[in-house]
Specification:
Elements lengths: L2 H13 L4 H5 L30 E5 L10 E4 L10 E4 L2 H6 L7 E4 L14 H9 L6 E4 L1 H5 L4 H19 L7 E7 L3 H21 L7 E6 L9 H18 L3 E3 L10 H18 L12 H23 L3 H6 L2 H19 L19 H4 L16
Parallel strand pairs: 1-2, 1-8, 2-3, 3-4, 5-6, 6-7, 7-8
Length: 384
């Protein structure tokens, strides 16, 4: 009897069952098979980040110039030198004057995520004319905050990319930035970033390229609560860690306060990133999760499922066509309502919301979601 057999016998004895899988396996909303233990796994090839180390992005404030190398701008700021600038405003993106010493990236989505189902060609043209390193943003952060599954998010990111290829040709792939929101499922979110690298690389090979996606990540609003700021801070710190370990090129932390933002709360939100990066240096590794049997296995399953869903979207006419018919909206809303039900039932635990203390439900899921609209909904809204 080898060591693994001996270990299994010991666990069977302690759990008083021969079927340890039935007890130790846990259901998840992604329909990913999570085994109770891992002892062998085929490792995926390491796909590096585009950036040498993950950029820690701060919302611009006076006085942060010496502490932050990368800024998110929503209005024009003059005098910045040797910075990485992420533009988060369509008007600013069109009219900003770029400085030669700075690097510029767009976070402005050129898609209309409603039933008009269009690409804003004028805006995209203006962005492409700028000296931005990545002028076109494929934003799926809204989809995560609306309750889309990880598989849906990644498939939609690819489907949006395919729409851009059809409009501007495969050369557009070199100019894309992907904006993802990171949720609270710690290891799954690491795997999400890693899986997207694989499937985007696969898509690029279909057009005779071999590209790694530029991934900008931000903390989610989905799991945050109005009256639970301290837990919001903990949740967003774990999300930042997932992003850095997963291999994001840039991370940004939204204010952990849902309302009544202050200069101090914005500064604390940024310094979460500083503490994580400087105390653990997890932002410098190419792929810190590589070799973890658990994360590798989830990565491969997410990649396979996302690619399959992408193909199904393409077979039905593509992202914009399914947006016009509300199939995308319905798909996301159905998953979001299932997730909301798990929160209501306590199967997903949110400390201070449905656990310690357990708040009274004030709204029903069908009041929060609309199968004809992609809109951000916080899980805690049901109890607020």
């Amino acid at each position: 009897m080898n060591g693994l057999d001996q270990w299994e016998k010991l666990v069977q004895k302690q759990l008083k069952t021969e079927n340890i899988d039935a007890i130790l396996r846990k259901e998840n909303l992604e329909d990913i098979e999570v085994r109770p233990y891992y002892h062998n796994n085929s490792e995926s090839p390491t796909l590096p980040k585009v950036e040498e180390s993950t950029h820690l992005v701060a919302r611009y404030q006076d006085g942060l110039e010496d502490q932050a190398f990368a800024f998110l701008l929503e209005e024009n700021v003059e005098g910045l030198q040797e910075k990485v600038i992420f533009i988060n405003n369509a008007d600013l993106a069109e009219h900003i004057l770029t400085e030669e010493s700075n690097r510029y990236f767009s976070l402005v989505d050129v898609f209309s995520d409603d039933q008009t189902a269009t690409i804003h060609e004028h805006l995209a043209g203006e962005l492409l004319s700028k000296t931005f390193e990545r002028p076109i943003c494929v934003d799926v952060s809204l989809h995560q905050n609306a309750g889309a599954s990880i598989v849906q998010q990644l498939a939609i990111a690819l489907a949006k990319s395919k729409e851009l290829i059809e409009k501007w040709g495969p050369e557009i792939l070199d100019k894309l930035l992907f904006r993802l929101a990171i949720g609270s499922n710690y290891f799954f979110e690491m795997a999400k970033i890693r899986a997207f690298k694989y499937i985007f690389n696969q898509l690029s090979k279909e057009f005779e390229k071999d590209l790694i996606p530029y991934i900008f990540t931000e903390t989610s609003f989905r799991n945050k609560a109005k009256n639970d700021e301290e837990n919001n801070l903990i949740r967003s710190t774990l999300e930042l860690a997932s992003a850095m370990i997963g291999g994001a090129d840039a991370v940004f932390s939204h204010d952990y306060k849902i309302e009544d933002h202050t200069k101090l709360s914005e500064e604390i939100a940024f310094k979460q990133q500083i503490v994580l990066a400087y105390e653990s240096i997890i932002n410098v590794f190419e792929d810190a999760a590589a070799g973890s049997y658990f994360v590798e296995d989830i990565t491969q399953q997410l990649a396979a499922k996302s690619w399959q869903l992408f193909l199904e979207i393409e077979e039905k006419g593509g992202y914009l066509e399914l947006l016009k018919s509300c199939e995308i909206q319905k798909m996301i809303a159905e998953h979001a309502m299932k997730e909301q039900l798990w929160v209501e039932e306590g199967r997903i635990k949110l400390i201070g919301i449905n656990l310690y203390p357990k708040l009274e439900k004030k709204k029903y899921a069908d009041e929060l979601y609309n199968v004809n609209e992609i809109k951000a909904v916080r899980l805690a809204e049901m109890f607020e």
